[in-house]
Design a protein that fits this description.
The strands form six sheets. The chain has a seven-stranded mixed sheet with strand order 14-15-16-12-11-18-19, with helices on both faces. The chain has three domains: 46-260 and 472-479, Aldehyde Dehydrogenase, Chain A, domain 1 (3-Layer(aba) Sandwich), CATH 3.40.605; 264-452, Aldehyde Dehydrogenase, Chain A, domain 2 (3-Layer(aba) Sandwich), CATH 3.40.309.10; 492-538, no CATH class. With 539 residues, the protein is of the alpha/beta class. The protein is 41% helix and 19% strand. Helix 5 (102-127) runs parallel beside helix 7 (165-178). Nicotinamide-adenine-dinucleotide is lined by residues 159-164, 186, 188-189, 218-219, 222-223, 236-238, 241, 244-245, 259-262, 293, 389, 391, 417, 464.
Amino acid sequence: MSEPEVVIKASSISFPRDRKISFTNGELISYDPATLQENGRVKVSSEEDVQVAVAHAHQAFPLWSSIPLGERISNLKRLSNLIYDDVEEIAALVSRECGKPKIEALTSEILPVLNMISVYTSQAEKWLAAEKPPFFWLAWLLGKSAKITYKPFGVVGVITPWNYPFYYDFGPALMALLAGNTVILKPSEYTPLVGKKAQELFAKLNLPPGTFQVIHGAGDVGQALIRARVDKIAFTGSPKTARAVLATAAERLTPVVMELGGKDAAIVLEDAPLETTAAGVAWAGLTSAGQVCASVERVYVSEKIAKPFIDRLVNNVQGLRMGQGLDPEVDMGPLTNERQLEIVKGHLRQAVEHGAQVLTGGKTKDQGLFFEPAVLVGVDRSMSLMREETFGPALPVVAVKDEEEAVRLANDSSFGLTASVWSLNRERAEKVAQRLRAGAVTINDHAVSAGLPNMPWGGIGESGFGRIHGRQGMQEFVYPSVIVGERFPRWKRLWWYPYNQKSYQFFRSLLVFLTNKPLLDKIRAISHLWRNLDLRRLH
Ligand code: NAD
């Protein structure tokens, strides 16, 4: 295959290649990874700032949680118009901080957030409503009635990554607030201005002071937040950081919901439509320059169609136009930060040293943090490219003998975020989906459930635990609290003092009804129950 011709649209831009996260005089500087121009700066929060913020959030909690849910809903609903009014500014800001095309800021950040607001606010009453458990005869016989209520934790610390800053700065926070918690958001140090924008938008709602606050900084500020007395942590980031988060959360036994990395597999069966699948897999592996927790990072294609599929995939990838994300005619921007660029380069270098062939792309440019999207073959599990999260524009492809081999290889991963199956046979695709170890499987597309706020989002293994979105996601921000009622409040309960032989015999006879003993035994037990029933009315 010929060497790719990737068009760099931002060709007039030149800048040093050492864009790193910088702190100057207590300020965090945000850079555009395409131009390395400064976007702006924010003040880094000190340990004391964090403690003050947490104290304010605790003070705000009793008021915010006591506001009726309907009012909290109407308050937060107002965010949609505020976001819509600033849509151009937000899209440009996301693009300038992450490097992604503005259209991606629109389709995979702003649109899903508006959708979240719409779905969460319409469903919150149902998702948070008290529940009556199914009828259980023993509880009824003993005079009990019970229900499950859902109570907010208190102060929720939300720690977010840089790859989908707007989406993650809003998603968990919205659920936590609707559920009645107060929230402290710590956005990524690479995208502080999006976090600042979230703060501005929430400020326009005039929520009780301390209900939603933003603190800024890197991992040390994240640690300070966990060490402060927060009641729940919603963390989205890498498995490596997750371990540090868990270690600190363990000190206070603070509960955590973890949305971590992925190594998503796309399984392309022999009846998949070639053109569409190649276009879909290219998008799924390369959108946001491959910096998606649910990027396709491994492609397993039936050997029967491997050659034509790979040709089409390479064609698709070679047709991508790279450049600054603010240009609407650009398909892919640069990587967001130097650290990520180094990881991607390292994975590709090691794969090539171990025998992989790069069919297209795989090179840096002299400009910004651009990296030509790559398609590779000749890859195997000995390579970090096939085991660890690459989080960059690389699509390694493996031809497989059959469905069995595809499923086995796809499941051979420490991650389990999402996966996709590509086939025109819906029934067969669903059967394959059923066998994949992942939090979501998409058929003939990839990871779209991230945009369906009524569906739980999350993974297993190194992809994390717990869920955001959907009813399950909302329930991460409440704890079930059972209320048990008494139908005979004036009567001494049968299990209270004083204990005696009669009550022992009563419960002894009751046990048989919880076994599979013959009906005759149960009928006999009824008379024992009656004889030993020790009813006493007290005053
Ligand atoms: P990261 O783990 O480096 O950082 C995430 C957040 O944690 C940042 O705000 C960072 O400042 C903070 N942090 C860093 N060290 C910390 C520490 N020791 N204690 C507390 N907080 C700390 O991740 P990243 O590079 O920002 O984002 C990329 C990762 O996030 C990838 O692994 C990606 O797959 C994952 N991600 C997962 C999802 C999901 O829904 N599963 C979504 C987006 C991103």
